[in-house]
Fold each of these.
Amino acid sequence: MFGWFKKKSPGNPPGPQIGRAEFQQFKELSKKSDLLEHFSGVCAGMPQVPFHVKADVQKMANLAQSLISYTGLDIWEIIECAESNEWGPIENKLGQTGASLNTLLQGSRPALERLRTWADENKLPPLSKFDSQAYQMTGFPRDLAEILTLRQLHLPNAGLTSLPVELHFLRALESICVDGNKIKVLPSEIFGLYSLRRIDAEGNEIESIPDAIGQARHLQSLDLDGNNLKSISSEISRCQSLKRAYFRKQQHGVSLDHRDTPLSDNAMQALVEIESRGVDVRY
């Protein structure tokens, strides 16, 4: 483990080692000059990637996105570090983030303990590796520092009936998968998570998308197929990063773009607006 964090006084717990694993993996991949070249090309808008490096380029993209979330650097600053093999800017930013999160850990301890209790009460499996393009971890940790720095909440078919509002303390959270549960409400608080890019909640019992969706400025993918949607806030039009929004096969049996749609006129106008921006909306 790297040692770039500020020294703590004796007896204080160590700060969360935020982003260190992702940083190390990105550095290792960046040592392959051809891979770094293809990755830079993709970032510059040249999507043609040889098949034999495609998986590694995607992995680099996922890791870079995490580093952007942790450090606040942009993609070209990260690429410049890789090309020059000068990693100081990333190291320094991660150190600052770790120190800040250590303070946050102490301040949010009661909320994190409630999340741990929620995990225990629902008998959620411990955090472990998972092999998919979108999710590399599954389950839920019990260590408070690991909870605080959780990036992916992957809990499909876990028998959940609700999500705790305390999830909004997990500022590194990038993606949520709760497919196949019995959740009726998405807490408004989660849409305020700065790093949140993806929500997969197919096959639940969700009836509405709240006004808070408008706060999710970096949300790219929203999958609510197979729910019971009757209301979508027009604030969805404020999601400037959105690329995909899926609302197919709702449990009430009415397609949301049908003339008998339960959605309001304002909701339909908002969906038409985001479609006009190139968002892939499916009903």
Amino acid sequence: MVLQTLHARPFPCYTDFMKSILTNTIKIAVAAILAILCAQALKLDFAVSAGIVAILSVQPTKKETLRTALARLLAFAVALVISVALFNILGFTIPVFFIYLVVFILICQWRKWISAMAMDSVLISHFLSFGKTGFAEIKNEVLLFIIGVGFGILVNIFLHKKADYIEELKNKTDGQIKLALHRMALRIQNPALADYDGTCFTSLNQSIFIAKRQAEENFNNQFTRKDTFDTRYLEMRENQTKILYEMYKAASRIQTVPSTAGLLADFLEKVSTEYHKDNDVKTLLEELALIHEKMKTVPLPQARAEFEDRANLFILMERLEEFLLIKRDFVQTTRGDYPFLSFYCAYSIAFINCSD
């Protein structure tokens, strides 16, 4: 059951779900209200339509909002040309508006301007009330479009959430992994450890999923340099979690306390303590290699139970090496992409060593 949970697609927790709904509600409402007030201040006809345009312009990310706004602008220009031509040739009647809809929808389907069909057509319908398409009328509709889309973009840029939220999520994920390592160290020295059932992987997997989703959203909200660090960092943690689960299975099979358990438990505790994003794990890998050599000198067990448990310890130790190698490879790759992080990581590690 735990294995199924580990690989299942988790649902966001209720708090994050409600936070997301509240944030989107505020963004959309503020955009609509400001657009309507601005349109009223300019004494435009159908000022409320600016709010409707703003509501339809707010998208989940800044990138998507800008892309959609550009598509709707092009579609609106086409809608103006079609409507002005049809209304002035055939008259300002409902049947002519039907003809406009057929032509405009056909073009939107062809150009993949699907999101523009409803919004632009609402603005074009105002010409039926005006009964003409003079400069003043066209100016009114163009300003409604600009105000609505403009406030949709501005609100999405300035009220978009979570500058530090991704760091909070990454730290939460790291903390859960540290706790799993700590409890693993306790478990191999205490087979009767309470509540060692692997349920921690449910919340850990959920945290990684939510963090990856936020990293993707942040990526889509970048206008200039596309920084993929957070996404790759979380993928690295996700890969480590898969290995961590294999370590958990090996630890949970141990029924006694082998003579080598203390040595590995101390090292697991050390890994847990030093588990942070700036650790290149070089010294940890070197120490693990020494432990591996030291275990070779320990006499073979005489009892079957200890033999099986030491075999599980060996499996755990092998998986632990994979766990650390994943981090080492990530750090090496990251330093190649972000040279300035090399100095930062070295400084952080030196500071930690000095503090000890």
Amino acid sequence: MAKKATTKAGTSTKRTSARKAPPNAARRPSRARAVKPETPPVEIPRLRNKAYLPELARLQIELVKLQEWIRHEGLRVVVVFEGRDAAGKGGVIKTITQSLNPRVCRVVALTAPTEREKTQWYFQRYVPHLPAAGEMVLFDRSWYNRAGVERVMGFCTEEEYREFLRACPEFERMLVRSGIILIKYWFSVSDAEQERRFQARIDDPTKRWKLSPMDLQSRSRWLDYSRAKDEMFVHCDIKQAPWYVVNADDKKRARLNVISHLLSLIPYEDLTPEMIELPPRQEDTGYVRPPLTEQRFVPDLH
């Protein structure tokens, strides 16, 4: 029994020593675990007119219903449009207002402040444009200029900038407490898409006016604007008036998404006017039209 045990022990020792590689033997490279490559993000194709136009037509009918509800109920609505240059803010605003009454829904796009306005309370120049009962105002850029272009380009002091971050949330809370419905959209566009749109504006004589010196500066200060936007969100993304970010790389999708979202935020009912029957034309009682030669007409060139 002892001999068999010794034999087993010897065999075991022999097997163990057989697993050891000689000192001068080349090492077999260790087999690395295969790393699964990251799945690239799925690129959504741009929306075609075949799908875009019917949905846009449907949403614009709903916008008319919302307009009538705002007028009927005496609501006061403010929609702020901010974001990167060439992100499509103007296109969305134009699409919203296309079928609406300009006396109910109006656009405010202020120029640079005058020397007098620079001495006012910062929010003062925006207050006269706020809506009365039954109105909706779309701000194409707004008081957030101070947190964006003024901050990045040095058009305001550090103290003015810090005071804006303190005062803006309180200013917006005051608007909401007064009964104004305040909605804020931030349009986000990728670096590559912004460059493509800038180049398209350069190539199109009818769009070059859209490229201002500030727009060109925004390209060279992309990261500065990103930091300014992040800081602004920290202070001004408040519960009473939160920011809603719009992915605007596809203009058509952005327009539909913003209109759908806007409609979802304001409960409304269908107050579309009923069908109208035209009254009969006034009977001719001997009216004689003046000679055409006495009038000036636009030349028929086309």
